[in-house]
Design goal:
With 230 residues, this protein is of the alpha/beta class. Helix content is 30%, strand content 30%. Helix 1 runs parallel beside helix 3. 36% of the residues are buried.
Length: 230
């Protein structure tokens, strides 16, 4: 199971920076490993570990054999918890976030160094077709809480579709709050030629102690290309 705590000794009252520690293992008394995340409460949402990231990271841990040796890209990575867990279990990981959010990109590099993990860190804006996206051929695409801004949905789904097409047989795994309604997400999947092959309630696979800390219902979806489309 996975857990987390905050190391108050790492806090900086001036800029509200703290380091949270997230534990993964089958027994909380004997964790297999932990991931440390640098968070900043004064910055935008990109520098805080939201529940969707915790749920997706736990799913990566539970599916670790599937991730070992896989080429993984995390979209909108922010504090990178799911991607770092993937790297820890043996995936080749590229962490991406909006190229214009320099403070988030810098923090991504810092958390990689903090955890002694080698990940490729890339500034990549959804819907922008520059050289960086053409080089990516992920087997698994991760996205925690990327379905929060309806105005960005088309750019997100266009990017996801491109990456899925660029790597046949790949899958997009995302966790989200049902803010805008699952019907809208279904509409966008149909619009962009995608389909959901698995839909789980976060409570269904989270350890009981971790699930008790979730204040909202979080969904996990696995999405692939709809190859049956005409």
């Amino acid at each position: 199971m996975a857990g987390s705590d905050s190391d108050s000794g790492e806090s900086d009252n001036h800029n509200m920076t703290t380091i949270s520690r997230h534990i993964f293992g089958d027994d909380s008394d004997e964790p297999i490993f932990s991931i440390s995340i640098i968070e900043n409460m004064k910055e935008e949402y990109g520098l805080f570990v939201w529940p969707c990231s915790t749920v997706l990271a736990e799913y990566v841990w539970q599916q670790r054999l599937r991730f070992s040796g896989a080429n993984v890209v995390e979209l909108g990575a922010g504090t990178c918890l799911p991607g770092l867990v993937a790297a820890k279990v043996g995936a080749d990981v590229t962490l991406t976030d909006d190229a214009n959010r320099i403070e988030v990109i810098d923090n991504m590099r810092r958390v990689c160094d903090l955890n002694k993990l080698k990940c490729n860190v890339l500034g990549m804006s959804w819907g922008v077709w520059d050289a960086s996206i053409f080089s990516l051929q992920p087997k698994i695409i991760l996205g925690a809480d990327v379905l929060y801004d309806t105005s960005a949905f088309d750019d997100l789904f266009a990017t996801v579709k491109f990456l899925l097409q660029n790597s046949p047989g790949s899958v997009f795994i995302t966790t989200y709050h049902n803010r805008s309604g699952h019907h809208l997400i279904e509409f966008l999947m149909a619009k962009w030629g995608l389909k959901c092959i698995k839909l789980l309630d976060g409570f269904s696979f989270m350890p009981s102690d971790k699930a008790s800390g979730l204040s909202v219902n979080i969904q996990l979806a696995e999405i692939v290309l709809n190859n049956l489309q005409p």
